[in-house]
Write a structure and sequence with these properties.
It is a single chain. The protein folds into 2 domains: about 10-215, no CATH class; about 225-340, Lipoprotein like domain (Double Stranded RNA Binding Domain, 2-Layer Sandwich), CATH 3.30.160. Helices cover about 40% and strands about 25% of the residues. The chain contains 10 helices and 11 strands. The strands form 3 sheets. The protein has a 5-stranded mixed beta sheet with strand order 8-7-9-10-11. Helix 9 runs parallel beside helix 10 (about 310-340).
């Protein structure tokens, strides 16, 4: 399973002006000592920064403006990465109703940025220090974030609108999981809007709402695990335990009518190494999770390992131990990746 941890959402700011402003000299601007005197709090979020280097002065201003939002705007790193990769790759395009919405979402997902900010002015004091002011116009930013929220709500609605047959499937699980991620992103946008003294659009639900629904779907989907040449059900138990970590129930019955079948073939063979006093064996696993309805292989998995010991029995035991470890780590990773790949809709 992927390890999850929450960090503050770090913003790299998208500069919306056509170019950076020229450097002023001469009389010190009023905003250097009192930014609110020039950029009122009622209309703007603004912050200043300074440094002997102009670029660093601008970065400091942007960083100080970002600090205004604090830790009330935070998102799980895994969630943020999943959302950005899915949207940027175009996999979510089919779930968005308009080209304009797709463009807006891809722009926001291309970086971890705070939208609607610009470096408004830069002043050089002629004694070796640059001063910069970063400015966000509240009304403009609110419009941007409202549009992004609406676009994400559009994605969520399209994802979860499906027939019962579509819903109670692995594809249904994937769709609800991505709906949860999109809802998490919307929560961060909602918090930004509230900090800008406005209210976001209605209809926002937390990501946990959709995750709970995904888990409810998972509980309705048994996966049939069929292993040939197993030993004391060790390989079956390893796969069943792995699937259970995701919430799926496994069955070993060959007569199961489950839509999803994990077929596993185990091959154990001796290895002849004449110049080595130990005895070696090789274990090979060929596994594939298949959708019986479509005939598609959803998750292929292969494992090949040689192990040795002073006895044949222990060499073979070590082979099975390594196979169990591979299933718990490698197959689990492949299955997790599969559940995190939303399929484009035509």
């Amino acid at each position: 399973m992927l390890k999850r941890f929450v960090i503050p959402l770090v913003f790299f700011v998208l500069i919306l002006s056509c170019g950076t402003p020229g450097v002023r000299t001469g009389k010190m601007p009023e905003w250097v000592n009192s930014v609110d005197a020039v950029y009122s709090r009622a209309r703007y979020v603004a912050a200043t920064g300074f440094s002997p280097d102009r670029i660093l002065a601008e970065k400091n201003a942007l960083s100080n403006l970002t600090a205004f939002f604090g830790q009330t705007v935070e998102i799980d790193k895994t969630v943020s990465s999943y959302y950005k990769q899915t949207v940027s790759s175009g996999a979510a395009d089919g779930w968005v109703d308009s080209a304009e919405m797709r463009t807006n979402i891809k722009t926001s997902a291309s970086m971890d940025e705070l939208m609607g900010v610009e470096i408004k002015e830069v002043w050089y004091d002629s004694r070796g220090t640059y001063y910069a002011v970063a400015v966000m116009e509240k009304a403009r930013a609110i419009l941007i974030y409202n549009d992004l929220i609406q676009a994400n709500l559009n994605i969520i609605n399209n994802l979860i609108t499906m027939t019962p047959s579509e819903k109670n499937s692995l594809d249904g699980v994937i769709r609800y999981r991505f709906a949860a991620v999109t809802a998490d992103v919307n929560v961060s946008y909602r918090n930004i809007i509230r900090l800008l003294d406005s209210e976001p659009p209605s209809g926002l639900l937390s990501g946990d709402h959709y995750r709970q629904e995904a888990q409810s779907i998972i509980r309705t989907i048994p996966i049939s695990v069929r292993v040939t040449n197993d030993r004391a059900t060790r390989i079956f138990n390893a796969f069943a335990g792995c699937l259970a970590e995701f919430g799926f129930e496994s069955t070993s019955s060959a007569s199961s009518n489950s839509r999803y079948v994990l077929n596993v073939n185990v091959t154990l063979s001796p290895v002849d190494l004449p110049d080595n006093r130990n005895i070696f064996s090789r274990i090979e696993l060929a596994a594939s999770l298949r959708d019986v309805n479509s005939g598609r292989v959803l998750v292929p998995y292969n494992f090949n390992r040689r192990e040795g010991h002073t006895t044949q029995a222990e060499a073979e035991n070590r082979c099975f131990l390594m196979a169990e470890k591979g299933i718990n780590e490698e197959f689990a990773g492949l299955f997790s990746d599969f559940l995190s790949q939303i399929h484009p809709r035509n």
